[in-house]
Amino acid sequence: MNDYLKIGELSKETDIPISALRYYEQIGLLLPAYKAESNYRYYKQSDIPLALFIKKAQYLGFSLEEIKEIIQERKSGKSACAKVRSFAQTKITELQEKMKELNYTGASPRGLTAEQL
Question: From the CB of residue 96, how many other CB atoms can be counted at a distance below 10 Å?
Answer without folding.
Answer: 10
